[in-house]
Amino acid sequence: MLVDGTAQSHVDLDDPTHLEFEYVRRMAHVVDLAADLGAPLRALHLGGGAWTLPRFVAVTRPGSRQRVVEIDGGLVDLVSARLPADGLELDVVVGDARAALARAPAASVDLLVLDVFAGARTPAHLTSAEFVADAARVLAPGGTYVANIADGAGLAFARTQFAAAAAAFAHLAALVAPAVLDGRRFGNVVLVGSDRELPVDGLVRAAAADPFPARVLDDARIRAMAGTAASDRAAVPSPMPPSGFFGRP
Fold first, then answer.
1. E-assigned strands of 23-126?
2. Sign of the C-alpha dihedral, residues 14, 20, 25, 27?
3. Residue 142 parent element (H or E)
4. Are 60 and 32 in contact (CB under 8 A)?
5. Are 165 and 193 in contact (CB under 8 A)?
6. Over the stretch 26-48, which tens digit does the pLDDT of each residue have?
């Protein structure tokens, strides 16, 4: 699925566990290790796309209670009609992700996923320290925060997100392709935060065995790389991908 020329989602209706995009595969590794395999999760997905990860969670963790928040009502209607998720019990609501997060009760979800793009960029109000702090508020004890961050050479933007997460969570990890980490190309960083110790060894094994291998950054590495978190007043959108990335002309 393309939105304004940017590749947003890939869905296999016959097999929701078939994940095509690299970063979604890495998010799925986090989900697989977030709690006992197969145990239902209470999940809040900020950013809908074609509901790829919620479909994966629904199939691999039956009985999960999931809410998907997507601001584009036309997109929700299109996905519902062309890529239906019948029987997966997804609660899809149209609204702003930050507003939906603010309304969510404290300690109400086990998994919170941030994967919001307006075109090819994450909006500024979803990149601030206050936003990440509110995400931590909504997570139940032992819950997991997962954010898809797009960035380029030097990871200057990702470092601000590392700093925001470092202030909100006791434990951090990240999964990133070697070429992105080394600054050789633009791409995705999957950032993970929790108040519990994260299964870094398991993530290393899953990332190494994946068809798209990734490096796993542990808590110490992320905190060493962290820059300065931006407040709501100073927050900026994620950088615009260069031509040729994410399907952009």
1. 42-46, 65-70, 90-94, 109-114
2. negative
3. strand 139-151
4. yes
5. yes
6. 999 999 998 777 789 999 999 98
Positive or negative, the CA dihedral 144, 149, 153, 156 is: negative
Cα–Cα distance, 128 to 219 (Å, whole number): 20
pLDDT of residue 87: 82
DSSP state of 120: T
Q: 125, 131 in Cβ contact below 8 A?
A: yes
Q: What is the bridge-based pairing of β-strands 139-151 and 171-176?
A: unpaired
| Apex 18 CA angle, 22 and 242, nearest 5 | 25
d(CA 94, CA 202): 35
Q: Backbone dihedral region of 114: left (phi > 0), alpha (psi from -120 to 50 degrees) or beta?
A: beta
The first and second tokens of residue 151, run together, are 């960035």
CA distances in angstroms from 86 to 12, 50, 155, listed in the order given: 14, 13, 39
- Cα separation, 203 vs 29, in Å, equals 7
**Are residues 49 and 69 in contact, defined by beta-carbon separation less than 8 angstroms?**
no
Q: What is the value of pTM for the model shown? A: 0.93
Task: Say how far apart CA 99 and CA 145 lie, in whole Å.
Answer: 17
For residue 156, what are its two tokens? 């200057």
